[in-house]
Amino acid sequence: KKEDYNKAISFYNEAIALEEVDTLKYTYAIEKANTLYIAKRYSEAKSAALQAISFDSRQGEPYMLLATIYVTVDPYPEDPILNKTKYWVAVDKLQTAKSIEPELAEKANTLINAYRKHYPNSDDVFMHNELKVGEAYTVGGVIGERVICREQ
């Protein structure tokens, strides 16, 4: 509430280091990830979300957060078409979230439907030689993940 994010993150790191129970470590890691996201430290937020997954892979929330991080960042600020590739990865994370935790399906589906509208269209894909529908593509920047190329 006081927006002292550095102090909060320090406390989360200490709690994770001292805790022995993975489910509690998960709780601290996901809170840390959310705090880092609020602080606009997206790369660190991604790392903390992945850390949360390592403590409890049966939770969908870290994947929801990863999707949120991915649509927030601009992996290719100079190329609006390639920048849209972030939506492919975000949708994949949302699909994972709802497959792990079915209670998240309604929220995930709402976001999936919204994000799919931002996929590159067939003309966009055609104009970029590195994009071929159905083939793997690595989205750069903070995202740094391989995804299958698709179009609207």
Core attributes:
two-stranded antiparallel ribbon; 2 strands; 62% helix
Low-confidence stretches: none
Q: Which percent range describes the beta-strand content?
A: 5-15%
**Count of helices?**
8
Cα separation of the termini: 40 Å
Based on CA atoms alone, the radius of gyration comes out at 17 Å
- Secondary structure: number of strands: 2
For the biggest sheet, the summary is: 2 strands, antiparallel
Instruction: Please state the average pLDDT score.
Output: 96
Order of helices and strands: HHHHHHHHEE
Strand order of the largest sheet: 1-2
Structural class: mainly alpha
Helicity level, as a percent range? 55-70%
Globular, elongated, flat, extended or rod-shaped: what is the shape? elongated
Please explain how this structure is put together.
There is one protein chain. The chain has 152 residues and is mainly α. Helix content is 62%, strand content 5%. It contains eight helices and two strands, in the order H-H-H-H-H-H-H-H-E-E. It has helices at 5-18, 22-38, 42-55, 61-72, 80-83, 86-100, 105-116, 122-127; strands at 136-139, 145-148. A two-stranded antiparallel sheet has the order 1-2. Strand 1 (136-139) and strand 2 form a beta hairpin. Helix 3 packs antiparallel against helix 4 (61-72) and helix 6 (86-100) runs antiparallel to helix 7. The longest helix is centred in the N-terminal third of the chain and has 17 residues, at 22-38. The termini are far apart. The model has no long low-confidence stretch (mean pLDDT 96).
